[in-house]
Amino acid sequence: MQAAFTAALLDAGHAPPPGLHAADTTERFAVYRNNVVSGLIRALASGFPAVEAIVGAEFFSALAACFVRAAPPTSPVLLDYGAALPDFIAGFAPAAELPYLPDVARLELAYTRAFHAADAVPLATDTLRRLPPERVASLRLQLHPSLQILRARHPVATIWAMNTGRAPLNEIADWSAQDVLVLRPQLAVDVIPLAPGEATFLETLQAGGTLGEAASTALDAAAAFGLGPALAALFIRGAVIAVETSEQDEE
Amino acid sequence: MTAMLPSVAGTAFKPAHFSALQAETTKPGFIEVHAENYMGDGGLPHAQLTALRAEHALSLHGVGLSIGSESRDLDRDHLQRLRKLCDRYQPDSFSEHLAWSSHGGVFLNDLLPLPYTDATLLRVIDHVAQTQDMLGRRILLENPATYLQFAASTIPETEFLGEIAARTGCGLLLDVTNVQVACTNRDEDPAAYLTRFPLQHVGEIHLAGHHAAKDRHGMPLLIDDHGSSVSARVWQLYESVIARIGPRPTLVEWDTDVPDWSVLVAEATRAQAILNRGAGKAEAA
Question: Region A26-32: what's the mean pLDDT?
Fold first, then answer.
């Protein structure tokens, strides 16, 4: 029974399942169908407010309804429903004239993940001053569990800020690719555009590389990269929760 | 004996109301939250709930366990998540629904109906027992708002709920709005339904607004949308229940188009006035 019920809920062209008894089975069944689809559209809208603001509520509902039918949730925890939405948008023909929309959706997904990520206390900025200079290159940093790096082909942090009421809507003069850091050091989520090389630096650290390795990969990516300012920024932003010395240095 | 909610009016908590609730000098009798909204790892939701739990009686209300599911076993991962929440927040009550919401690995995010038969009764009894075993506590099971019935059903809903309570030791969450909605939608008298309801098992009462429409044949079609104030008829039915069994923990739910905190307080105050009038009434055995 529940298999037939489920199939008919997700497909508006499907007749109600057999064995039902009501004044008007089709109309009554439609109440459930509408509850399921509209409830999930609302869940997506709450997680992707900038996407909704950009395309408008009507377009968003139509887009979300297609997504819900193509990829219904697989868990009763809806906090992370929509992980596949950015890729879905990228392949959604009616949204093709907004090539930056998948990037905005990726940023919003990262925002939600940071919002619900595990708590951890960032190290104070004076920790940086107490690091032994001769060993800095061999140190590994443990980054905050909420930290995510997004490499976008569009000025996504700017577009996102303008479409969530955080910045006034304006022409974007410098339309170029943007690397973005998403981080929640305490309770509020920060969305920070990164300088050239910083994304590579953070990715290397996240993968377990030492500060020396991270600085070297970052310099390869962007000649203007400077370890000092990047390291200071990490501590000021509350991105570091522990400093690990390598085993060799422990001797 | 597990903890119990106080027999007073409580308020549903929404994050938008956090500051208003913290500033309130008269606290609500208890607060109720949906368990699934607190299944992230950390951040603001847990910070708020931790602060609120320190000062309020807490009802944890599940909306995703799918107790009415056809499958033999409930979702173990979800039961574990509920266990973790109950261990962390030690709620005074945990409740779920006589409904299903998952099938074949898909979560449908709605409280869907099941036929009432000997076979489904045994399945639900087993699922309630699995839940109570995993959580290490007695749960409350809520009567559903339904829009249609199954030709296969052979057991009246009131009897079905009474059997589950009697055979698992669980309590019942009587949602008076769901009674009004489901009974009207199947052309049954809600007052008559309530006279058959096993009221002795009721550990909490829910009230909510519903949407009143008519179908294309002109028959009433009530929709449980939790998006407006409680109707006069539902208040009347609620008062008749309280007059019979005395005060029970009562919550006014409001989940769509959530209004200002003061509107929720006004609804809770109205429920509390009815509870006060019923205070002298004998408790049901």
Answer: 93
Distance from B26 to chain A by nearest Cα, in Å? 27
SS3 labels along A140-173: EEEECCCCEEEEECCCHHHHHHHCCCCCCCCCCC
User: Could you give the ipTM of this predicted complex?
Assistant: 0.94
For the residues B78-87, what does the mean pLDDT come to? 98
3-state SS record for A40-93: HHHHHHHHCHHHHHHHCHHHHHHHHHHHHHHCCCCCCCHHHCCCCHHHHHHCCH
Whether residue B61 has pLDDT greater than 80:
yes
A145 contact residues in B (CB cutoff 8 A): 41
The residue ranges of every structural domain in chain A are 1-98, 109-251
User: Tokens 């000092």 — which residue?
Assistant: A228
Closest by CA to B201, choosing from B103, B119, B284, is B284
Other Cβ atoms within 10 Å of A207 Cβ, number: 10
Phi and psi at residue B153, to the nearest 5°: -65, 135
Percent helix, strand, coil in chain B, to 5, is: 40, 20, 40
Asked if residues A39 and B72 have their Cβ atoms less than 8 Å apart, the reply is no
Contact B70 A2 (CB under 8 A): yes
Min Cα distance B24 → chain A (Å) is 23
What digits encode the pLDDT tens for the residues A40-92?
999 999 999 999 999 999 999 999 999 999 999 999 999 989 999 999 999 99
- Residue A233, pLDDT score: 96
Maximum distance among all alpha carbons in chain B? 52
Distance CA B63, CA B216 (A): 31
CA distance B135 to B123: 18
Q: What is the mean pLDDT of residues A140-157?
A: 97
Domains within chain B, CATH numbers bracketed: 9-19+28-275 (3.20.20.150)
Q: What are phi and psi of B123, to 5 degrees?
A: -65, -45
How far apart (Å, rounded) are the C-alpha atoms in residues A99 and A90?
A: 8
Q: Are B277 and B239 in contact (CB under 8 A)?
A: yes
What is the C-alpha separation between A11 and A27, in angstroms, rounded?
Answer: 15
**Candidates A116, A144, A241, partner chain B, best to mutate (most B CBs within 10 A):** A116
Distance from CA of B242 to the nearest CA of A (A): 31
Residue B96 to residue B128: CA distance in whole angstroms: 9
> Given an 8 Å threshold on Cβ–Cβ distance, is B70 in contact with A28?
no
B25 pLDDT above the threshold of 90? no
Backbone phi, psi, residue A29, to 5°: -65, -35
Intra-chain end-to-end CA distance of chain B, in Å: 17
**Can you give the pLDDT at residue A248?**
53
pLDDT of residue A80: 85
Q: How many CA atoms lie within 13 A of A79 on its CB side?
A: 20
Q: Quick one: A183 exposed, middle or buried, by C-beta within 10 A (0-12, 13-18, 19+)?
A: buried
The amino acid sitting at A141 is L
Element at B205 (helix H, strand E): strand B202-208
